[in-house]
UniProtKB/TrEMBL annotation:
Source organism: Dyella koreensis
Record key words, sorted: Cell membrane, Membrane, Transmembrane, Transmembrane helix, Transport
Keyword Acetylation annotated: no
Subcellular location: Cell inner membrane
Main location: membrane
Signal peptide boundaries: none
Lineage: Bacteria, Pseudomonadati, Pseudomonadota, Gammaproteobacteria, Lysobacterales
Protein name stated in the entry: MATE family efflux transporter
Length: 479
């Protein structure tokens, strides 16, 4: 077995608790780096180019988030398919998934890039971007559309590697991309020496360069290491999309992408309700939301790690390990999320003071709503972990239904019905109620649902004879 294989053990082996933790931590690190990158970029734009520029980028970012969310589910479907294939020791199927995914993402990203570039202003006007912000948002978003092929393909490769049990390589190249982006932002925005000042376009150009460089470096590294999922010259035929795999990527990925849209659209509705109580309440909610973003990161990282780890064990038919992965994942959620929530309760005022003035109504309101709502993210974390397990088999529609019920049919009606009597507290209490409801429904589906019988593919892809030939170990492909 080669040194590379030794560094990348299958997720079907070893102690579950340690393996899951070591796999989840790099995913968490990648999430933190992405948030840090966005915060630093917003700081440069907001402090040195003004509120209109920041507003323009904020509007453009909503469109970018929607477009990235649309392919998140497809990337997640690829992660699960690769994981199941490797768990079953079927290298043929794993490489067919990679080949089909590469062709699909290249074609989709080019189409999105071209269509978006020529319809940028229309999309921003449809969103209702203020005129003073539109002049900044339009050139910024056009350059982001130029970067879209690199962003899509880079994201696909990162998710595929995680499906193969490797979370450290994506973290390393995410760090490269973020550091390069942070360094290039002020240079390209304001210019220096022979580098001209590009203004707001410079920030988007930094994204284009950092994503492209990281993508090229990642591909070069995978081929230099002879990664077992690389497509050799003799395997380029796998780039021709396989209809069965493509159908699974789209129809299994779509519900997972819609889950993100349900979450973000519900958040927009809650913001609309909060805005009705004035700027102080909006500011308080905005500050608390900044903390909530970080509170949710461990649960999201554990959920992603659980999904990849469970997928390999589903492929290997190790159902006892799948059940233990779920239990360990839930325990880690309570441990990590609970620790963060405890810190926020102890330093509630100081944490919120990072975003709000020390003396004012907004800070008092933020402390109050945090006391009511922040603890409920432990419940939502359980939901994320259990969803990660059940979708590893291909059961993707029930989680979407559960989220839709909790975030649209329970949370908003509860807030609307009690707002006349208890005011904004109705909004804050709707968060624990929605989180508790989603957790109970997720637990019920995990316990009694038919997710163990679900399938990602309607029919096997790899030929049995070839699959058996490569079955003994993934590591043999590395050598």
């Amino acid at each position: 077995m080669s040194a590379l294989a030794a560094r990348q053990p299958l997720l079907t082996e070893g102690p579950i608790a340690r393996t899951l933790l070591m796999f989840a931590l790099p995913i968490l690190g990648s999430t933190v780096l992405q948030s840090l990158n966005a915060s630093v970029n917003a700081m440069w734009i907001g402090h040195f180019m003004g509120e209109s520029a920041l507003g323009g980028v904020s509007n453009a970012s909503l469109i970018v988030f929607l477009l990235l969310t649309a392919v998140f589910g497809v990337s997640m479907a690829s992660t699960i398919l690769v994981g199941q294939s490797l768990g079953a020791r079927n290298m043929v199927e794993a490489k067919r998934v990679v080949g089909t995914g590469v062709s699909f993402f290249v074609a989709l990203s080019v189409a999105v890039s071209v269509l978006g570039y020529f319809n940028t202003e229309w999309m921003l006007r449809t969103l209702g971007t203020p005129p003073d912000a539109l002049s900044y948002a339009t050139p910024y978003l056009r350059m982001i559309f130029v970067a879209m092929p690199s962003m899509y393909f880079y994201n696909f490769l990162m998710m595929t590697l995680r499906g193969a049990g490797d979370a450290r390589t994506p973290l390393a190249f995410m760090a490269m991309s973020v550091l390069l982006d942070i360094a290039l932002n002020p240079l390209l925005m304001f210019g220096w020496g022979p580098v001209p000042a590009m203004g707001i376009v410079g920030s988007a150009t930094a994204t284009l360069i950092s994503q492209s460089v990281a993508l090229i470096a990642l591909l070069a590294t995978l081929y230099a290491r002879k990664h077992f999922l690389r497509l050799t010259r003799a395997e380029l035929a796998y780039l021709r999309p396989d209809a069965t795999i493509l159908r699974s990527l789209i129809f299994k990925g779509l519900p997972m992408g819609l889950q993100m849209i349900v979450i973000s659209s519900s958040a927009m509705l809650m913001m609309h309700l909060v805005n009705g109580y004035g700027s102080h309440t909006t500011a308080a909610y905005g500050a608390a939301s900044q903390l909530w973003n970080y509170v949710q990161m461990p649960a999201m990282a554990i959920g992603a790690a659980v999904s990849s780890m469970a997928a390999q064990n589903v492929g290997a038919q190790l159902w006892d390990r799948v059940s233990r992965i779920a239990k360990v994942g839930v325990a880690y959620n309570f441990l990590l999320s609970g620790a963060l929530i405890a810190v926020i309760y102890v330093f509630n005022r100081a944490a919120l003071n990072l975003f709000l003035p020390g003396h004012g109504e907004a800070l008092t309101l933020a402390q109050h709503l945090n006391m009511i709502a922040v603890w409920s993210f432990m419940f939502f974390g359980v939901t994320f972990v259990l969803f990660g397990v059940v979708r590893s088999t291909g059961a993707v529609w029930p989680p979407l239904v559960i989220l839709t019920i909790s975030m649209w049919l329970i949370r908003p009606p509860f807030a609307y019905s009690l707002m006349p009597s208890i005011g904004a507290d109705a909004i804050w209490w709707s968060f624990p109620l929605g989180s508790l409801a989603s957790m109970l429904m997720a637990m019920a589906y995990y316990r009694w649902g038919g997710w163990r019988k679900a399938r990602m593919l309607s029919a096997p892809v790899g030929k049995p004879a070839i699959a058996e030939k490569v079955a003994p170990a993934v590591a043999e492909e590395v050598e």
